[in-house]
Amino acid sequence: MSPANIRFGTDGWRGVIADDFTFENVRRVAQATADYWNAQSQPKQTIVGYDNRFFSEVYARLVCEVFAANGLKALYPPVASPTPAISYAVHQRHLCGAVMLTASHNPPQFNGYKIKADYAGSADPEVCRQIEAWVDRTPVRFQNFEQAVKEGHVEIDDPRPAHIAAIKKHVDLRAIRRAKLRVVVDSMHGCGDELLAGVASSPRLRVETIRANRDVLFGGTNPEPIGKNLGPLCAAVRRSRAHVGLATDGDADRLGVVDDRGRYVSIQIVFAMLVLHLVRNRQEAPGLVVKSANGTVLLDRICQAHGLKLAEVPVGFKYICEKMRETDVLIGGEESGGIGFRGHIPERDGLLACLMLLEMLAMTGQKISRVIERVQKEFGRSVYDRVDMHFPLEKREKLIDSLRTSPPEKLLGVPVADVKTFDGIKYVCEDGSWLMFRASGTEPIIRIYSEAPSATRVKRLLDLGRKRAQSL
Questions:
Q1: Domain 175-379 listed as CATH 3.40.50.300
Q2: Residue range 348-376: average pLDDT?
Q3: Is it the case that residue 441 has pLDDT exceeding 80?
Q4: What is the pTM of this model?
Q5: Fewer Cβ atoms within 10 Å of its own Cβ: the N or the C terminal residue of the chain?
């Protein structure tokens, strides 16, 4: 059997465990990563993190073994750690980069290999291409893990305390702990564990954590903090009459939110609320706001009202990271729940985003449902949804080409004002509603997204998009 072809997608290389994500292939990618870093004039020290997925800690040990044999000292956490903690370690300890073994929000049969660059964010496409080019150029070399630890080539090191100390400095922790709030945190069996409760809990602010234990099957659902996966959190919020429910994904770099009535809150609305919180409540200096191509139109309206510049980038936090490295970015976020903040690492951080939301509730003294109502009253009603449709890999290009070359004049009676093609295909109507198609960078699916002033129009637009895809 010939070796698997290693290709990096939206955020790293991912594959099915024991199919293409094997010990052999992980070692091949690790060797390529070591060769790339050794070819650079950088420090020869890195960190290899991992999440709660099946065998993640074993894969991480294999990577450490390869790095040790190639002259790279590797830090290895004693427990599963959030991706932003791994990235922060790169910043804090001036490392050449990092590797994180995680498939983030993907189904449990997947695992993945994320690369973090020396700037403490996702490796940009050029770095990924160069590492791909190194695959199989040199034989794989590795050293026994225990021997590498004994000789000092691998060091056991927990990055979480330093990361927690860093995010505490970005919020008014005293105000959060003084707030009389009941909070339910859903770690979705990921490596968020009970970290948020440890930071925010106080005699006044009570935090209950659910699904904090390791479960490599994630309770039978994907560890993605979106509405269909957060039934247990919605139920827990209603049962405990909590003020808010907060969720983090498998590697704790994304968040999900449930309001005080036990209803899932679209991340599009969460992102809009956080922008307003930074500008109005924290009165932060102006800076660039960055959204992904599938981001909400509310951000356009909010930025226009507050004189803020807005940039729209392709889907994938590495593109937001690029902007954060280039200029002064106030906040950058994506539809999938990844949000990054000024002054922190150029990386999405689910734990920090959760704390920012708690700070907003503490400073406003309002229920989150009331904050949402005020945002939509001022900037327009926004309803958003998406569907993930299984679609054969070999037919994706044909679909995207068809959507690009044959755009509709109208969508459900409303004229199409713009067609954006820099990432997938996005049809934008005159009333601000839109329909977008994009091939997943990690799975054989087509994602179809829509935003409109009403749930009925969103549903009809998604149905229209599904039919168009099915016709091909």
A1: no
A2: 97
A3: no
A4: 0.94
A5: N
